[in-house]
Every structure is written in C-alpha cells, then in structure tokens.
Amino acid sequence: MPEGDTLHRAARRLQALVGQRISAESPNPRGRVTRVAETVDGRTLESVEAIGKNLRLRFSGGIVVRSHLRMSGRWSVRPRGERRVGSPWLVLRGDRLEGVLWNGPILELHDRALRRLGPDILERPPQLDAILQRLRGADGTRTLGETLLDQSLVAGIGNMWLAESLWDAQLSPWAKLRDVSQPDRRRALESAATLMRASLDTGREDRRVYRRAGQPCPRCSAPIASWGLGDDNRTAYWCPRCQAGKDPRGA
Q1: Residue 53 annotated among the catalytic residues of the structure
Q2: Choosing from 2, 88, 119, 173, which is the catalytic residue?
Q3: CA–CA separation, 86 and 66 (whole Å)
Q4: pTM of this prediction?
Q5: How many domains does the chain have?
Q6: What is the pLDDT of residues 29-40, one digit of tens each?
Q7: What is the residue range of 172's domain?
Q8: Which among 67, 87, 48 is positioned nearest to 2, based on CA atoms?
Q9: Annotation says 3 is catalytic
Q10: Is residue 251 scored above 70 in pLDDT?
Q11: Which of 103, 151, 178, 243 could cross-link with 72 by S-S, CB 3.0 to 4.6 Å?
C-alpha cells in the first residue's frame, strides 16, 4: 500500500496544475460513478495537499476531492494528451500537463474521513507531542506495531516504514504499548519521521528489513523474521536479535 511519502510525492507533482482551469474526465466506468470528473470539470484547482495516505484537492467553488490509493492506486503527471494504454479513473488536464489517477479505489467529493486521522508524521516539523498524547490514550494491550499503523493515532506510516523505523530504533513491533516507555515511543516516531522525510526528499527507499525475511540483518547478521501482525494480518518484518522481545512465532 502506498504510504505517506508516496502521497506527498504525488502532491508535489500535482502542484504543477495548481492555479489552472482544469478539464476533467473519467475514462474508467468506476471512476465515472464517483461524479468527480463532471463536478470539477472547468473549475480551477486551488490546492493539493497530502494528509497521511490521502490526497485532498480543492477546486474553485468550494469543491473538495479526497483520493486514497489503497493497494493499487497511483497518480502520475504527464504531458497533456500523451498517448496512454488503459482507462484511468480520473484525468485532470491543465494547460500543458495532466494528472492521471490509475486504479483509484477511493475517490469522493468530500473529506470527512480526514477528520478521524491523527497528525501526519511528515508534517514540518512533525507534531510528536500531539501524537504521543494520542498514544497515551490508546489501548495499551495492543502491540507497538499495531498502534503505529493506526491512522487515527498517527497518519502516514504503513507496513514498510513501520518495519524500517522500528528496526532503526531497535524496538520490537511485538512489544505491548503499555510496556514501551515514553522515550522509546518518541524514538520510534522520530525514526519514522526521519526515514520517511529522507525518502520523500531523495526519492530513495533504503530497505534494511522490509520484505527481507530470511536474509541477514545488516546490523547483527541474524536472519530477518516475518509474521502476520494484528487483526488485519499485515506482515511485520524485524530482527529477533536487534529488536528483542516476545517472538510471536513461538506463541
């Protein structure tokens, strides 16, 4: 699933269309059902903002569009009228460029879902104190990994950056939140913010543990482990030696 840094990169690219009157269409029938294209066609794109794993686009006349990519969605910006293969959900044409949404599983004419989100880990600077306050009120019986994936507590972190940030902070994703000290919680958040900001600014995703199950840990050479995390069974990756704690594989 695209994570916060991916959405912030998409927002940066789409800035090229801000201030322009947009010609919009939805070649894909599923995109047409949302009525987004017919609603924004002919309006001026006023702003594009990434919030966690979402994009919010504001158009003249008070029109707001929310896009969430889930597992398969992708935004691209290309020369206007360039030949393409396939049927995108939404095309926003400016003077010289066009923004194209492929496989846009969530596309809607409101942003109510954003009200439930915690602070974005990629804000400049990140609101770490506000996030830590939310964590103090969270369910202490949940694991640290599940907690940091909860978008109502902190927005933008997904499986990949959870794995990389907890490895960097040398914290186990399987530790119960109640057993993780405030300094360790802050360290995990600082690591996530730093790594994701570096990815956003450089375009590089330096992976040490994500999808490297069975390979040697870059720090201690122990085999990287993987296991399903939480009710959604999203795969966690960690080093059992560097990130010591309860090992779910033996439960």
Answers
A1: yes
A2: 2
A3: 22
A4: 0.91
A5: 2
A6: 999 999 999 999
A7: 118-250
A8: 67
A9: yes
A10: no
A11: 103
